[in-house]
Amino acid sequence: MVYSRVQEFFRGIDISSNMFVGDIPESIGDLLKGLHMLNLSKNILTGHIPPSLGNLMTLESLDLSQNRLSGEIPPQLAQLTFLEWFNVSHNNLTGSIPQGKQFNTFESSSFEGNLGLCGNPLSKKCWVSDSSPPPPSISKQSQDSTGSLFEFGWKIVLVGYGFGLIIGVIIGNIVATKKHDWLMKTFGMRQRIRRNVRREHRN
């Protein structure tokens, strides 16, 4: 018998331990919105868990354990506020376990047997990438330190040169002033001597 459409009055579906193969239909969450229990465990189901299962708002029990499902657990399943039983153990699932609401009540046994899963309630924590830049290498540090010393050395040279220039100008100015005074005094004394000599000759 072939149904033209799935009966909406179904409250529970249990097809566990039947060696079914293939993917879970993507439309399952749109066709069985009145479902309270879904058990697909102990088959050979592959592919991903359909995110449309998050549309089964009245779902209380979901068992997908002991299959070959892969990928991540859809975060849409965290919206199922009536979900009391959840089991996806012994699959090939990966990624972080959704958090919040009913997912905070499930034990680690609901997720065991999936080596790629991480996060609460499992003891395996999810790896968080570190965005901080790696420490500079030794050669880079030596180059930076050499450059810093070189720059600092040039600063000292420039400061010393400027300071020496200022001191040189001051000393030069003092020397020039004293030399000028000495020349004026010497030249003045000679002028006086010449005047005295001329006066003596006249007398």
Give structural notes.
This protein is α/β, with parallel strands linked by helices and 203 residues long. Among the domains are: 12-118, Alpha-Beta Horseshoe (Leucine-rich repeat, LRR (right-handed beta-alpha superhelix)); 157-187. 34% of the residues lie in helices and 14% in strands. The chain contains 2 helices and 9 strands; from the N terminus they run ββαβββββββα. It has helices at 28-31, 138-202; strands spanning 12-14, 21-23, 37-39, 44-46, 61-63, 70-71, 85-87, 92-96, 116-118. The strands form 3 sheets. A 4-stranded parallel sheet has the order 1-3-5-7, with no helix packed on it. The chain has a 3-stranded parallel sheet with strand order 6-8-9, with no helix packed on it. The protein is elongated and about 150 Å long. InterPro entries: Leu-rich_rpt, LRR_dom_sf. Belongs to the RLP family.
